[in-house]
Amino acid sequence: MDKLKDLASKASGGSSNTGGPAAAGNQGQEDYLDKGLAAAESKYGGGKIDPAKQRGMNEKATDFAREKFEGATG
Questions:
Q1: Among 60, 64, 42, 61, which residue's Cα sits nearest to residue 52?
Q2: How many CB atoms are located within 10 Å of the residue 33 CB?
């Protein structure tokens, strides 16, 4: 049960982060795009995709998409 609490704390941006604010960067902060992707995975993944396990990859994908969108639109 403690592992589940630790995982939930990490996923929600809990204080288990050992690095300072500069070392953490944007990690630990889930914005609307990240939440939307997690919701879509939960709804359409058929129970095969666990958004908590995929959060790191989702963060990279959404950051990349955001960067490209901002680069194209200014």
A1: 42
A2: 16
Confidence of residue 55 (pLDDT cuts 50, 70, 90): confident
In this prediction the pTM is: 0.53
Count of positions (residues) in the chain: 74
DSSP string, 42-69: HHHSTT---TTTTHHHHHHHHHHHHHHH
CA 6 remoteness from chain centre: 15
CA separation for the pair 23, 56 (Å, rounded): 16
Question: Please, how many CA atoms are within 13 Å of residue 31, restricted to the half-sphere of its CB?
Answer: 9
